[in-house]
């Protein structure tokens, strides 16, 4: 990241406007500097999805601002969209909210992006711009309050007609505008902010013109009174003139203060099992089966609500064949990255061909990227989070209906991962201990998969449902094999072993 003490071109004082900054040459130099600094910032950001791909920063588009005068204690908060132009011809759009201060803020040195001329920062009676220290706004508690105040004003339809930003509110909750905002650490694809114990805001980083499925689905589930999601309080969007479409920039929802991550709970159960050498998965005090069953019911009820409020279709003929063809295409691509898949390719293609031969496949809106890490256990039951779908897919695909068995398959694969991850964290040089843990890991996974599936379906699966589920599990494991090869090569054995078991079944 850039040096926070860096100064603007031709400046002799980092706390003052740039000397001689009144000509086109200075503005061009500043513009080039902005692109360079944004490139450095974006490429190192945890939420940037294009790591390892050469790119340049294209346009920087101001969508609106949250106000401020640019004084040391009141930043000018601008919401900008940055176009990322990859060398291979692809293009993506990222949201970069900026907190702009005239003076350096040492407390924000870790979030410093650069120093440049910011339109809108000019003081009254001066030009409508000014030199500023520019920071990543989600790290700034002062800037974070500006979002909250804007959401609260939206409750009374207090909209600034001069500002293109549109804050929307659902009725039923009074925000605590004095709650302190804190940025969550560790999140990858977005930036989430906790406001005390009152609310949680998700700032979407990679954005696409169109309705964000996370907002859309939370809106429906909240209005219908679903017990299985955190209630939506509101969202922020803007009309993008270049695309003649809305772009959704953030959502505000209920903060689940007592929640525990589903993946963490599952792994704790596995550790209990590994610590009891003579007990089976259904005998240890930390047996997870009861939670797996409740989670299965929560997913079934959520799917039921989505089916009531979104279109439900039935794919037949060419549409069913296209589903199988898509699975085969993903396998073709995966084989180039994971050569070990070749040993299982015939079996996998047979599973996918069985899907293509089905007479019909019902589809509806689903979660699209479901696993234990997308679930939270609260005192009032399980909550399902993050309905954005698979991040790598285009928005147009994430909004399409799909089979509910894709979500079920994602959970079944997650039940397989939990004990394998714990086993790897407890690696032992003794082969007999490692073999015993592998056996117990499969026991835990199988036990919880069966319980979850039985609770979700509430009956035996039909032959067609079993065919779909098996294929979706295989398709997910192929995706995992590619992911692990690219990100955690030592873990690729987890999905490869699952694929081998599918072939042996």
Question: Would you mind describing this structure in some detail?
Answer:
- This protein is an alpha+beta fold.
- The protein contains twelve helices and 17 strands.
- The longest helix is centred in the C-terminal third of the chain and has 27 residues.
- Strands 1, 2, 3, 4, 5 and 10 form a six-stranded antiparallel β-sheet that branches.
- The protein has three domains: 112 residues, no CATH class; 110 residues, Phosphorylase Kinase, domain 1, CATH 3.30.200; 245 residues, Aminoglycoside 3'-phosphotransferase, Chain: A, domain 2 (Alpha-Beta Complex).
Quick summary:
The chain has 12 helices and 17 strands. It has helices at 24-44, 141-154, 213-223, 262-275, 289-309, 318-337, 345-356, 395-398, 404-425, 431-457, 463-487, 493-504, and strands spanning 55-65, 76-86, 91-101, 112-119, 129-136, 166-169, 181-183, 190-195, 199-204, 206-207, 232-240, 245-254, 260-261, 313-316, 360-363, 375-378, 381-384. The strands form 4 sheets. Strands 1, 2, 3, 4, 5 and 10 form a 6-stranded antiparallel beta sheet that branches.
């Amino acid at each position: 990241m850039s040096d926070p003490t860096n100064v603007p071109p031709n400046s002799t004082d980092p706390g003052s406007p740039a000397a001689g900054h009144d000509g086109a040459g200075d503005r061009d130099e500043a513009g080039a500097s902005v692109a360079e600094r944004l490139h450095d910032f974006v490429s190192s950001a945890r939420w940037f999805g294009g790591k390892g791909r050469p790119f340049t920063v294209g346009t920087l588009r101001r969508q609106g601002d949250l106000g401020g005068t640019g004084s040391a204690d009141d930043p000018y908060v601008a919401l900008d969209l940055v176009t990322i132009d990859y060398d291979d011809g692809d293009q993506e759009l990222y949201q970069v909210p900026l907190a702009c201060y005239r003076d350096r803020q040492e407390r924000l040195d870790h979030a410093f992006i650069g120093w440049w001329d910011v339109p809108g920062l000019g003081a009254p009676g001066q030009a409508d711009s000014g030199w500023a220290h520019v920071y990543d706004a989600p790290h700034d508690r002062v800037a974070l309050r500006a979002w909250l105040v804007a959401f609260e004003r939206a409750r009374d339809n207090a909209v600034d007609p001069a500002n293109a930003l549109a804050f929307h509110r659902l009725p039923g909750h009074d925000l605590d505008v004095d709650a302190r905002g804190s940025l969550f650490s560790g999140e990858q694809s977005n930036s989430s902010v906790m406001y005390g114990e009152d609310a949680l805001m998700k700032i979407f980083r990679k954005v696409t013109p169109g309705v964000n499925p996370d907002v859309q689905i939370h809106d429906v589930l909240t209005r219908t009174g679903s017990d299985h999601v955190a209630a939506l309080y509101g969202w922020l969007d803007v009309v993008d003139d270049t695309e003649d479409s809305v772009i959704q920039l953030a959502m505000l929802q209920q903060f689940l203060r007592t929640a525990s991550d589903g993946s963490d709970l599952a792994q704790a159960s596995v550790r209990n099992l590994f610590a009891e050498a003579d007990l089976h998965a259904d005998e240890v005090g930390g047996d997870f089966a009861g939670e797996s069953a409740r989670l299965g019911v929560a997913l079934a009820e959520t799917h039921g609500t989505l089916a009531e409020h979104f279109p439900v279709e039935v794919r037949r003929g060419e549409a069913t064949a296209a589903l199988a063809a898509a699975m085969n295409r993903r396998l073709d691509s995966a084989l180039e990255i994971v050569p070990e898949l070749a040993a299982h390719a015939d079996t996998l293609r047979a599973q996918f061909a069985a899907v293509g031969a089905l007479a019909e496949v019902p589809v509806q809106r689903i979660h699209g990227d479901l696993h234990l890490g997308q679930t939270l256990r609260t005192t009032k039951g399980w909550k399902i989070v993050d309905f954005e779908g698979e991040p790598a897919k285009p928005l147009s695909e994430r909004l399409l209906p799909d089979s509910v068995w894709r979500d079920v398959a994602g959970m079944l694969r997650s039940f397989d991962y939990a004990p394998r991850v714990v086993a790897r964290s407890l690696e032992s040089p003794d082969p007999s201990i490692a073999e015993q843990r592998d056996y117990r890991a499969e026991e835990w996974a199988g036990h919880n998969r069966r319980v979850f599936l039985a609770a979700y379906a509430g009956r035996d699966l039909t032959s067609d449902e079993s065919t779909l589920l098996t294929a979706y599990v295989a398709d997910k494991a192929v995706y995992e094999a590619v992911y692990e090869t690219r990100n955690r090569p030592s873990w690729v054995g987890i999905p490869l072993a699952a694929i081998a078991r599918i072939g042996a079944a």
